[in-house]
Amino acid sequence: QKEVEQNSGPLSVPEGAIASLNCTYSDRGSQSFFWYRQYSGKSPELIMFIYSNGDKEDGRFTAQLNKASQYVSLLIRDSQPSDSATYLCAVNGGYNFNKFYFGSGTKLNVKP
Amino acid sequence: EAQVTQNPRYLITVTGKKLTVTCSQNMNHEYMSWYRQDPGLGLRQIYYSMNVEVTDKGDVPEGYKVSRKEKRNFPLILESPSPNQTSLYFCASSGQGLLETQYFGPGTRLLVL
Protein backbone atom coordinates (compact mmCIF):
# COMPACT_ATOMS: atom_id res chain seq x y z
CA GLN A 1 0.00 0.00 0.00
CA LYS A 2 1.32 3.42 -0.93
CA GLU A 3 1.80 5.96 1.83
CA VAL A 4 -0.15 8.60 -0.10
CA GLU A 5 -2.80 7.90 -2.71
CA GLN A 6 -4.24 10.30 -5.25
CA ASN A 7 -6.43 9.82 -8.27
CA SER A 8 -4.17 10.47 -11.25
CA GLY A 9 -6.94 12.10 -13.26
CA PRO A 10 -7.10 13.98 -15.45
CA LEU A 11 -9.78 15.97 -13.71
CA SER A 12 -11.46 18.32 -16.13
CA VAL A 13 -13.53 21.26 -14.95
CA PRO A 14 -14.89 24.29 -16.79
CA GLU A 15 -13.51 27.72 -16.05
CA GLY A 16 -15.17 29.23 -12.99
CA ALA A 17 -16.14 25.89 -11.46
CA ILE A 18 -14.89 24.35 -8.22
CA ALA A 19 -12.18 21.74 -8.60
CA SER A 20 -11.97 19.14 -5.85
CA LEU A 21 -8.77 17.17 -5.40
CA ASN A 22 -8.49 14.33 -2.94
CA CYS A 23 -5.74 12.48 -1.14
CA THR A 24 -5.63 9.64 1.38
CA TYR A 25 -2.66 8.67 3.51
CA SER A 26 -1.81 5.53 5.44
CA ASP A 27 0.28 6.70 8.42
CA ARG A 28 -2.01 7.75 11.28
CA GLY A 29 0.92 9.51 12.94
CA SER A 30 1.42 11.99 10.11
CA GLN A 31 1.09 15.54 11.37
CA SER A 32 1.77 17.85 8.43
CA PHE A 33 -0.03 17.87 5.11
CA PHE A 34 0.94 19.85 2.06
CA TRP A 35 -0.46 20.60 -1.35
CA TYR A 36 2.01 21.42 -4.13
CA ARG A 37 1.30 22.50 -7.67
CA GLN A 38 3.57 21.39 -10.49
CA TYR A 39 3.33 22.79 -13.98
CA SER A 40 4.59 20.61 -16.78
CA GLY A 41 8.38 20.66 -16.89
CA LYS A 42 8.66 22.72 -13.72
CA SER A 43 9.43 22.05 -10.10
CA PRO A 44 6.74 21.72 -7.42
CA GLU A 45 5.67 24.84 -5.58
CA LEU A 46 3.74 24.96 -2.33
CA ILE A 47 0.11 26.04 -2.43
CA MET A 48 -0.70 25.51 1.22
CA PHE A 49 -0.23 23.30 4.23
CA ILE A 50 -2.60 22.15 6.95
CA TYR A 51 -2.06 20.37 10.24
CA SER A 52 -5.35 20.68 12.14
CA ASN A 53 -8.60 18.93 11.42
CA GLY A 54 -11.03 21.09 9.52
CA ASP A 55 -10.72 23.66 6.80
CA LYS A 56 -8.03 26.17 5.99
CA GLU A 57 -8.68 28.85 3.40
CA ASP A 58 -6.19 30.90 1.41
CA GLY A 59 -7.69 32.96 -1.36
CA ARG A 60 -9.35 30.64 -3.87
CA PHE A 61 -7.87 27.57 -2.22
CA THR A 62 -9.28 25.61 0.70
CA ALA A 63 -7.53 22.63 2.24
CA GLN A 64 -9.57 20.19 4.28
CA LEU A 65 -8.16 17.65 6.70
CA ASN A 66 -9.90 14.73 8.35
CA LYS A 67 -7.41 12.76 10.42
CA ALA A 68 -9.95 10.17 11.51
CA SER A 69 -10.57 9.26 7.89
CA GLN A 70 -6.93 9.92 6.90
CA TYR A 71 -8.13 12.18 4.15
CA VAL A 72 -6.93 15.51 2.81
CA SER A 73 -8.55 17.51 0.06
CA LEU A 74 -7.96 20.70 -1.85
CA LEU A 75 -10.76 22.80 -3.25
CA ILE A 76 -10.05 25.39 -5.90
CA ARG A 77 -12.85 27.90 -6.33
CA ASP A 78 -13.39 29.91 -9.51
CA SER A 79 -10.96 27.66 -11.37
CA GLN A 80 -8.88 29.38 -14.04
CA PRO A 81 -7.07 27.93 -17.04
CA SER A 82 -3.84 28.93 -15.28
CA ASP A 83 -4.72 26.42 -12.55
CA SER A 84 -4.20 23.62 -15.05
CA ALA A 85 -1.34 21.64 -13.55
CA THR A 86 -0.59 18.51 -11.55
CA TYR A 87 -1.39 18.78 -7.86
CA LEU A 88 0.74 16.81 -5.44
CA CYS A 89 -0.32 15.84 -1.95
CA ALA A 90 2.51 15.37 0.55
CA VAL A 91 2.56 14.20 4.14
CA ASN A 92 5.33 13.81 6.65
CA GLY A 93 6.12 10.50 8.24
CA GLY A 94 4.43 9.80 11.53
CA TYR A 95 7.35 7.96 13.09
CA ASN A 96 9.94 10.16 11.45
CA PHE A 97 8.51 13.56 10.60
CA ASN A 98 11.66 14.44 8.66
CA LYS A 99 10.63 12.02 5.94
CA PHE A 100 8.11 13.10 3.35
CA TYR A 101 5.80 11.07 1.19
CA PHE A 102 4.23 12.39 -1.97
CA GLY A 103 1.29 11.13 -3.91
CA SER A 104 1.68 10.59 -7.63
CA GLY A 105 -0.39 13.69 -8.31
CA THR A 106 -3.72 14.59 -9.89
CA LYS A 107 -3.65 16.32 -13.24
CA LEU A 108 -6.18 19.14 -13.42
CA ASN A 109 -7.41 20.61 -16.69
CA VAL A 110 -9.45 23.80 -16.53
CA LYS A 111 -11.24 24.37 -19.80
CA PRO A 112 -11.91 27.95 -20.93
CA GLU B 1 17.03 36.05 -4.88
CA ALA B 2 16.23 33.08 -2.62
CA GLN B 3 16.72 29.93 -4.58
CA VAL B 4 17.82 26.34 -4.83
CA THR B 5 20.14 25.60 -7.73
CA GLN B 6 21.02 22.27 -9.26
CA ASN B 7 23.68 21.32 -11.76
CA PRO B 8 23.67 19.94 -14.31
CA ARG B 9 20.11 20.40 -15.50
CA TYR B 10 20.41 17.63 -18.06
CA LEU B 11 22.80 14.71 -18.10
CA ILE B 12 23.25 11.70 -20.34
CA THR B 13 25.70 9.13 -19.09
CA VAL B 14 26.53 5.45 -19.39
CA THR B 15 26.11 2.62 -16.94
CA GLY B 16 28.79 2.55 -14.27
CA LYS B 17 30.25 6.00 -14.80
CA LYS B 18 30.25 7.84 -11.48
CA LEU B 19 28.45 11.16 -11.44
CA THR B 20 27.56 13.92 -9.01
CA VAL B 21 24.59 16.24 -9.12
CA THR B 22 25.16 19.38 -7.12
CA CYS B 23 22.56 21.24 -5.09
CA SER B 24 23.02 24.58 -3.42
CA GLN B 25 20.67 26.87 -1.49
CA ASN B 26 21.14 30.47 -0.39
CA MET B 27 18.41 30.60 2.28
CA ASN B 28 20.47 29.31 5.20
CA HIS B 29 18.13 26.34 5.46
CA GLU B 30 18.98 23.50 7.81
CA TYR B 31 16.95 20.83 6.02
CA MET B 32 17.78 19.60 2.53
CA SER B 33 16.46 16.65 0.60
CA TRP B 34 16.73 14.79 -2.68
CA TYR B 35 13.78 13.34 -4.56
CA ARG B 36 13.34 11.45 -7.77
CA GLN B 37 10.22 11.75 -9.86
CA ASP B 38 9.05 8.99 -12.17
CA PRO B 39 5.80 8.78 -14.14
CA GLY B 40 3.04 7.24 -12.08
CA LEU B 41 5.19 7.06 -8.96
CA GLY B 42 5.30 10.68 -7.96
CA LEU B 43 8.12 12.15 -5.93
CA ARG B 44 10.07 9.70 -3.82
CA GLN B 45 12.54 10.83 -1.20
CA ILE B 46 16.07 9.51 -1.65
CA TYR B 47 18.02 11.09 1.20
CA TYR B 48 17.60 14.04 3.48
CA SER B 49 19.81 16.06 5.78
CA MET B 50 18.84 17.83 8.96
CA ASN B 51 22.05 19.83 9.13
CA VAL B 52 25.76 19.70 8.40
CA GLU B 53 27.08 16.15 8.75
CA VAL B 54 23.58 14.82 9.55
CA THR B 55 22.03 12.74 6.79
CA ASP B 56 19.50 9.93 6.68
CA LYS B 57 17.85 7.62 4.20
CA GLY B 58 14.57 8.39 2.57
CA ASP B 59 12.34 5.88 0.86
CA VAL B 60 14.58 4.91 -2.05
CA PRO B 61 18.26 5.34 -1.05
CA GLU B 62 19.72 2.32 -2.85
CA GLY B 63 22.39 3.26 -5.37
CA TYR B 64 22.80 6.81 -4.08
CA LYS B 65 25.12 8.60 -1.68
CA VAL B 66 24.99 12.08 -0.24
CA SER B 67 27.16 14.31 1.87
CA ARG B 68 26.55 17.53 3.78
CA LYS B 69 29.88 19.16 4.52
CA GLU B 70 28.54 22.70 4.23
CA LYS B 71 25.13 24.01 5.14
CA ARG B 72 24.39 25.36 1.68
CA ASN B 73 25.43 22.32 -0.38
CA PHE B 74 23.97 18.83 -0.60
CA PRO B 75 25.39 16.85 -3.54
CA LEU B 76 23.86 13.61 -4.77
CA ILE B 77 26.36 10.98 -5.85
CA LEU B 78 25.68 8.00 -8.08
CA GLU B 79 28.75 5.78 -7.70
CA SER B 80 27.74 3.33 -10.42
CA PRO B 81 24.65 4.54 -12.25
CA SER B 82 22.28 2.03 -13.78
CA PRO B 83 19.46 2.51 -16.31
CA ASN B 84 16.83 2.23 -13.55
CA GLN B 85 18.21 5.47 -12.13
CA THR B 86 17.06 7.33 -15.22
CA SER B 87 14.73 9.88 -13.73
CA LEU B 88 14.02 13.51 -12.94
CA TYR B 89 15.77 14.56 -9.74
CA PHE B 90 14.80 17.42 -7.47
CA CYS B 91 16.68 18.93 -4.60
CA ALA B 92 14.70 20.80 -1.95
CA SER B 93 15.46 22.81 1.16
CA SER B 94 13.52 24.19 4.09
CA GLY B 95 13.91 25.54 7.57
CA GLN B 96 13.45 23.26 10.57
CA GLY B 97 10.00 22.41 11.79
CA LEU B 98 6.95 20.41 10.88
CA LEU B 99 5.33 23.15 8.85
CA GLU B 100 8.27 24.53 6.95
CA THR B 101 7.82 24.93 3.22
CA GLN B 102 10.17 22.96 1.03
CA TYR B 103 11.61 24.99 -1.83
CA PHE B 104 12.51 22.92 -4.84
CA GLY B 105 15.32 23.33 -7.30
CA PRO B 106 14.65 23.34 -11.05
CA GLY B 107 15.33 19.63 -11.45
CA THR B 108 17.99 17.51 -13.13
CA ARG B 109 16.94 15.17 -15.89
CA LEU B 110 19.24 12.14 -15.94
CA LEU B 111 19.41 9.48 -18.63
CA VAL B 112 21.59 6.44 -17.96
CA LEU B 113 22.31 4.36 -21.06
What does this structure look like?
The complex is a heterodimer of chains A (112) and B (113). With 112 residues, chain A is mainly β. Helices cover 0% and strands 54% of the residues of chain A. Chain A is built from no helices and eleven strands. Chain A has strands at 4-6, 11-14, 19-25, 33-38, 45-50, 54-58, 61-66, 71-76, 85-92, 100-102, 106-111. In chain A, the strands form two sheets. In chain A, strands 2, 4, 5, 9, 10 and 11 form a six-stranded mixed β-sheet that branches. Chain A is globular. The model of chain A has no long low-confidence stretch (mean pLDDT 94). Chain B has 113 residues and is mainly β. Helices cover 0% and strands 50% of the residues of chain B. Chain B contains no helices and eleven strands. In chain B, strands 2, 4, 5, 6, 9, 10 and 11 form a seven-stranded mixed β-sheet that branches. Chain B has a four-stranded antiparallel β-sheet with strand order 1-3-8-7, with no helix packed on it. In chain B, strand 4 (31-38) and strand 5 (42-51) form a beta hairpin. The model of chain B has no long low-confidence stretch (mean pLDDT 95). Classes of the chains: A mainly beta (112), B mainly beta (113). Chains A and B meet through strand 5, strand 9 and strand 10 of A and strand 4 and strand 5 of B.
List the helices and strands and how they pair.
The complex is a heterodimer of chains A (112) and B (113).
Chain A: E1 4-6, E2 11-14, E3 19-25, E4 33-38, E5 45-50, E6 54-58, E7 61-66, E8 71-76, E9 85-92, E10 100-102, E11 106-111
Parallel strand pairs in A: 2-11
Antiparallel strand pairs in A: 1-3, 3-8, 4-5, 4-9, 6-7, 7-8, 9-10, 9-11
Chain B: E1 4-7, E2 10-13, E3 19-25, E4 31-38, E5 42-51, E6 54-57, E7 65-66, E8 76-78, E9 87-94, E10 103-104, E11 108-112
Parallel strand pairs in B: 2-11
Antiparallel strand pairs in B: 1-3, 3-8, 4-5, 4-9, 5-6, 7-8, 9-10, 9-11
